[in-house]
Amino acid sequence: MTTTATTDPAAAATAATTDPQKLSARETWQALYRHFRPHRGVVALGTLCTLIGAATALLQPLAAKSLVERLGGDGSIAGLLLLLTALVVLGTAIESVGAYVLERTAESVVLAARRSLVGRLLRLRLAEVERTQPGDLMSRITSDTTLLRAVTTQSVVSAISGGLSFLATLAMMALLDPVLLGVTLGVIVLIGGCVALVMPKIAQATQRAQEAVGTVSTALERAFGAFRTVKASGAEQRETEAVEAAAHEAWRHGVRSAKWQAVAWSSVGLAVQVSFLAVLGIGGSRVASGATSVATLVAFLLYLFYLIDPVSRLVEAASQYQVGSAAIARIVQAERLETEDAGEPSPPPTTTAPAPASVVFDEVTFRYRDDLPYVHHGVSFEVPGPGMTAFVGPSGAGKTTVFALIERFYEATGGRILVDGEDVRDLPLARLRGAIGYVEQDAPVLAGTLRENLLFAAPEATEADIHGVLVRAKLDALVERLPDGLDTVVGHRGSKLSGGERQRVAIARALLRKPRLLLLDEATSQLDAVNELALRDVVTEVSRDVTVLVVAHRLSTVTLADRIVVMDAGRVRAVGTHTELVARDPLYGELAATQFLASADGGNGAGGNGAATPAGTPRGTP
Ligand SMILES: Nc1ncnc2c1ncn2[C@@H]1O[C@H](COP(=O)(O)OP(=O)(O)OP(=O)(O)O)[C@@H](O)[C@H]1O
């Protein structure tokens, strides 16, 4: 079995449903460190620049003290002034370089996080995507990753440089007057204790805000995903209100986070102001008693104000860590979702005509989730290639699910699915899917040009290949009509194309992949006569040398099929040609009479495909 879950599914399920805040402190730290690690050298350089800048700033009060002491004497102060100026310029220049290096690194951290997350999210198992909200997953890539920017760079520097500057400033203050230092530290520790209580609230509010941003994305994705329906239903106002409500929620929690950050920040100023008053009072009396000099008190007070910077940096680092931990919890949660392993890369496209594939379902049972009922209750059939096999049956019988299982979008719960005699679980996913062309029921066409759509599944296809499939899919006339030909932009979800054109573009895209097996989930919508005829011709022509499986809703398709598999309630109840099945299967007879979409050109084809090859036999209809 080559499709391996990268994590334990149960653990992944738990991760996706539990509160991301539940990431332990250690896990949070490890996850953040993982993003920081590749950049630690550059962050060290940024830290060094910041430290040099801080050191030059630290020397300034000493130079100022000498300057004040010389004011009374007759010595020149020009040299000292020059030194002070040089210190300021040098410190600023080095700090600027450090700031640039760090900002650049911060962007790199975001880029790396986005790359890794996109790489994983686009390989998610379908079931995982169905369990989550794509809009919310998108917001983790676009919004949460940006919050890693500061925590992995600036806050590391702030913590290191702030911590060192803090200690160095304390050392200088200790040299000047240990008693006044004791007073200062007493105040700082008291207020620092209060700040520590506030910190977790920042993480909590940030996380709620990010969740609300995810809800905004989800609501937008829903609205834009069904834009015409939204308009046709007159639901613009309601959808707008839903997005606004989520946006308001994001704002509310964002403001709450800002409030707690402001409390943390203001306590820095408060700590220094209170210390200043205490030092001024106690220091003044010490000057009066001759225990210390005015110059020492002035220098001490200057250092006290220099303390604002390192303490601010420490508080900033701590609050950034809280913001980052909220983001990393959501990122890790997305990273833990179960992904597919594509296995070995897709084989290069074949130059010769590919051999048609065979498909066997052997007692396949399947349910979409453990808490849902079974959809397949032991489905068995054999399809030798080439030729066309139509799957028919009432809505919900499990026809589309057959295709999903062949593509291994989901794993069968029981039984075996063989493609060319090999169990699909033993085939590398890339190889399996490389052999298949898949056209979904709503034939999605992606935003972009026609050419981009055609090359989507076969980027290396040549112009000659493209021309070939255009002719086969009867799109050549359309392309000639379009002003920009293949480079015509088709709009969001191909909205500038007709339903039939979209379907043929989807078929052409699948054919360009040179599949050995074509899975065609026929649209349930009625096509006009020309489109239906075109489609029928394409499918008939393709099925001459490719195995084509069609979930058929149209009588015209069914009657063309070499064999028809009749499904009902998750079981195969009969296999045969149209003529055979009309004669011996009551459900099929009823479907043919009432449920198949009649041919748009008025042809009924109900006489059956007399030239149909002998039918396969169901291998068991439990
Ligand atoms: N992704 C899914 N998650 C959960 N249940 C699903 C999913 N897809 C389909 N089902 C359920 O599985 C059953 C079979 O669906 P399937 O799409 O295979 O039916 P179908 O025969 O192709 O129907 P139709 O002719 O209407 O397209 C249905 O009851 C459907 O609700």
UniProtKB/TrEMBL annotation:
Domain ABC transmembrane type-1: start-end pairs: 44-322
CDD domains documented for this protein: ABC_6TM_LmrA_like
Domain ABC transporter: 359-594
Name of the protein this chain belongs to: ABC transporter ATP-binding protein
UniProt topology in membrane: Multi-pass membrane protein
Entry keyword Nucleotide-binding: yes
Source organism, top-level taxon: Bacteria
Keywords, alphabetical: ATP-binding, Membrane, Nucleotide-binding, Transmembrane, Transmembrane helix
Bias (Low complexity): 611-622
Source taxonomy: Bacteria, Bacillati, Actinomycetota, Actinomycetes, Kitasatosporales
Main location: membrane
Originating species: Streptomyces monticola
Region (Disordered): 603-622
Matching Pfam families: ABC_membrane (PF00664), ABC_tran (PF00005)
InterPro entries hit by this protein: AAA+_ATPase, ABC1_TM_dom, ABC1_TM_sf, ABC_transporter-like_ATP-bd, ABC_transporter-like_CS, P-loop_NTPase, Type_1_exporter
Entry's Gene Ontology molecular function annotations: ATP binding
Segments crossing the lipid bilayer: 42-63, 75-94, 147-173, 179-199, 262-282, 288-308
Compartments, record wording: Cell membrane
